[in-house]
Amino acid sequence: MPEAPRLDSRTDSRTAPTDEELRTLDAHWRAANYLAAGQIYLLANPLLTEPLRPEHIKPRLLGHWGTSPGLNLVYTHLNRVIKARELDALCIWGPGHGGPSVLANSWLEGSYSEKYPDASRDAQGMELLMRQFSFPGGVPSHVAPEVPGSIHEGGELGYSLAHAYGAALDNPDLLVTCVIGDGEAETGPLAGSWHANKFLDPVHDGAVLPILHLNGYKIANPTVLSRLPEEELDALLRGYGHEPIHVAGDDPATVHRAMAEAMDTALDRITEAQRAAREDGVTERPHWPVIVLRTPKGWTGPAEVDGEPVEGTWRAHQVPLSGVRDNPEHLRQLESWLRSYRPGELFDAEGRPVADVLACVPDGTRRLGATPYANGGLLVRDLPIPSLDDFAVPVDKPGTSMHEPTRVLGDLLARVMRDTSGRRDFRLVGPDETASNRLQAVYSASGKTWQAGTLPVDEHLDRHGRVMEILSEHLCQGWLEGYLLTGRHGLFSCYEAFVHIVDSMVNQHIKWLRTSRRLPWRAPIASLNYLLTSHVWRQDHNGFSHQDPGFVDHVLNKSPEVVRVYLPPDANTLLSVADHALRSRDYVNVIVAGKQPCFDWLSIEEARVHCARGAGIWEWAGTEDGTEPDVVLACAGDVPTQETLAAAHLLRRYLPELSVRVVNVVDLARLLPQGEHPHGMSDFEYDGLFTTTKPVIFAYHGYPWLIHRLAYRRTGHQNLHVRGYKEAGTTTTPFDMVVRNDLDRYRLVMDVIDRVPGLAVRATAVRQRMADARTRHHSWIREHGTDLPEVAEWSWNA
């Protein structure tokens, strides 16, 4: 085990603020509140150097005020402890539309102006900061990639705490604070994320400090946790393994003092827990602190508008004063509200923050907006991936030997895990399926992360492990995203049917990557890699509920510069694809591969070449004679490839005069036109591979309509006939799954006969033989419970 990191004693001292420090903290908080409100409303006159007029107001008022004062309070007090204790820190801003606050604070500390020099820390830059917020050509209303210091997209709720724990893993000197909105706390992913503290290693990981911000309301309803009696809420949080520290009130001076004390108490407890684990060898799981912060929604904003209460109610959620350009009373209230922060005390005549405002701000990369942990590409190192020759299976002839592809990959992953044991920057995550997916070789290099209780019957549990299993796809995804975004590498292994649980999460990550690519200051991060196995064609034992190949369709709808989908047909092509994916940057790579024994088709060198092409002719499988073939048999996926080659075998036997081309597709995006995806083929390439006039019988792993959608612009699309999964599933035999979905070898031969001109008459007897084989299959499996011997014992060279 690598040596435990050493604690810096500077982090172990209490630093209660003086009255003077509290005064400057309040100045910083008021400045942030002023800038946050200004972003929602102001188009001009940022310092209120003249009376507010309608033309100073944005024509469309967008943004969310309700959560902003609480977030500003957290940012201000984080600044204080970071500076006083010289901490490396990162904050995850969970409340969905907290953008005004984080933008305001990053501008105050200077990190925003460093990334965007036009938004200088003066009146001109302040006006730009306010104008661009939720404005065409500007920045979003939530915490997005454009915001320095962010790794968490605020546009969707539920994932903040999972991201925070992912960021803390293997970052022993990092404090990750996570602000959780009480609306967000009602989501399923967030509720599951409270269990992440049972996986946090106090020796090798950093600390996560959750701050549950209870301001009472969502858009139009009270929030559940804010209405629980304090005793009940405490019982809930203690049951999750946390010790709550409460801060509550609406008087700023009182809340500032209480918040400072709470932060000091929490950090002292964290420091002591880490010291005990790292220096004394204590193995008992700590009960980590959580701060429960109760402040009014829309705090310091308008108390009442048009006779209705606003501050402390759901009406403060978005824009408290909505008719400012047309309603003189609203305009007067807005000006009174903004001037209540006394901007003249906070900014000098040129609009620069005064010394009191900046007194709490840390220096350099300790500023929350400048931390390299929020720009993980600055920290990422290449993985030490060994030569594939060390793991490849020998293939003297195609289709004569069989291996479990994911088991072969598991050996490679075990080596990567072993070779990163010192640097600890690679993790494997999955929902309780590592061994089920045949990747258990990794346990020889690292156990499964576990900080809770253990029993003698448990296997491979390890307090310091880097294999992470929890029966929550949401949490696996969130952990890995946080890990990648802070500069590390990983792989998410999942049953194909249940990866859909994170459909929405991968949407957000793809959007994050797409936006980040357009920001020159965001460095590329390691790709998010999925291994989808236990797939649709070999879920015959679990049945219909476990049969769904649609994640590929979902991903290929997304930004083409980001998404990649691979369907390796055997063990060596899986190795080649995985090698490429683990080395790549700024992609979402989806790899679909089986865990059951399947035929080995290509040597490792052939696999490298084939994967580099993405799609190619397997000359040894076809019967072309140098002229244009009569028919093209295409395939993508391991089981479709086997059925296609079995069909080619039958055609050799029964129709030897037929010229057959076999095309295998590994990289699904190759089917797209060149202008639609970076991996797309030119029309010249596509026409050369599939022809423009000959029938193409395409056996595909997933829903057949996807292939039609990818290829609909091609010249020969009218000749394309796709077989795939069409929601005909049950608990049955492996071959019956393909028969039920008309993807079997006999049906493929029948398709050839039906579509090659002239065969319908002269090959009638062959077609009848194929139909009879399907009939025999149905009778056989019902009597014997197994597949036909001619299917179960088939091999390419039989």
Automatic annotation (TrEMBL):
InterPro entries: Phosphoketolase, THDP-binding, Transketo_C/PFOR_II, Xul5P/Fru6P_PKetolase, Xul5P/Fru6P_PKetolase_C, Xul5P/Fru6P_PKetolase_CS, Xul5P/Fru6P_PKetolase_N, Xul5P/Fru6P_PKetolase_ThDP_BS. It comes from the Bacteria. Keywords: Lyase, Thiamine pyrophosphate. GO terms for molecular function: aldehyde-lyase activity; magnesium ion binding. Residues 595-796 form the Xylulose 5-phosphate/Fructose 6-phosphate phosphoketolase C-terminal domain. GO terms for biological process: carbohydrate metabolic process. Its EC number is 4.1.2.-. The keyword Translocase does not apply. Its cofactor is thiamine diphosphate. Residues 18-378 form the Xylulose 5-phosphate/Fructose 6-phosphate phosphoketolase N-terminal domain. Pfam families: XFP, XFP_C, XFP_N. NCBIfam families: PRK05261.1-2, PRK05261.1-4, PRK05261.1-6. Belongs to the XFP family. This is Probable phosphoketolase. It comes from Streptomyces paradoxus.
